[in-house]
Write a structure and sequence with these properties.
Glutathione S-transferase Yfyf (Class Pi), Chain A, domain 2; alpha+beta; 9 helices; globular; Glutaredoxin; 6 strands
């Protein structure tokens, strides 16, 4: 059994974090039994440290930093944090399940993920407030403090309006257009990055668009707009991933 540590939200039995979605999609695609252990933002550091996970980074003061997602594979006694490392571990440990990094593509898919992340620069300000509204009260208090400490300004100051909002939204669409070109080179409008089977690159892309769909809401103008971009590719991708959205 795998224990999957995820961030609790105000949405019933639902997560928001795109990084957590990467791991949840991976587990569901592989069909590996697991259960979710929900943590508040302010519980993550002490809980993962106490449970013996390795830190995923360092704070500015040099102290260890712990992040989710994380898994504890109780059958092997192994604990892994970071969605990419988790996917690699699951591929290696459960070889009879669908491969997330098939055909020695780990390096290429890591490079694709880096490229995809650069396409999200203009998106972040649009998502901060919608995501914040869907956190628990405890999560909101932590998020507000964290954003202030990280950026030196209040959460509400990230909201874009007027011409700036129009410009940055268009910048986001154009940046994602480059990712659409990569998919188009594989063939058609309904293929995955490697053709007919899901791999890590698809999981990364689907995780972030699922994050935006949940943050904005199905009926929002923002999501309706995204769902039409690039001949509807991203909406169709989420439809293909729909059977892997179970929260166990």
């Amino acid at each position: 059994m795998i224990i999957f540590y995820d961030i609790i939200t105000a949405l019933p039995n639902q997560t928001l974090s795109p990084n957590s979605w990467k791991t949840r999609f991976t587990l569901n695609i592989k069909g590996i039994p697991y259960r979710t252990e929900w943590l508040e933002f302010d519980e993550i550091q002490e809980r993962l440290k106490a449970d013996g996970f390795n830190p995923t980074g360092k704070k500015d003061d040099g102290s260890d930093f712990y992040t989710l997602p994380a898994i504890h594979d109780t059958s092997a006694g192994t604990k892994v944090a970071d969605s990419f490392l988790i996917a690699q571990y699951l591929d290696k440990t459960y070889p009879d399940t669908p491969k997330i990094f098939p055909h020695l593509t780990t390096g290429l898919q890591s490079a694709f993920e880096d490229q995809f992340m650069t396409s999200l620069t203009s998106m972040w300000p649009f998502s901060f407030l919608p995501v914040h509204s869907k956190l628990t009260p405890r999560g909101q208090a932590h998020n507000r403090k964290a954003k202030q400490e990280q950026f030196g300004k209040p959460l509400e100051s990230f909201e874009l309006t007027g011409e700036e909002a129009v410009r940055e939204w268009e910048n986001f669409r154009n940046a994602i257009g480059k990712i659409d070109e990569y998919y188009a080179k594989t063939g058609g409008t309904d293929s995955f990055l490697l053709g007919d089977s899901i791999s890590w690159g698809d999981i990364v892309v689907a995780s972030f668009f699922n994050y935006l769909k949940l943050a904005f809401g199905d009926d929002s103008e923002r999501w309706k707009d995204i769902s039409k971009w690039h001949a509807g590719r991203w909406n169709r991708l989420l439809i293909a991933f729909d059977r892997y959205t179970s929260v166990l």
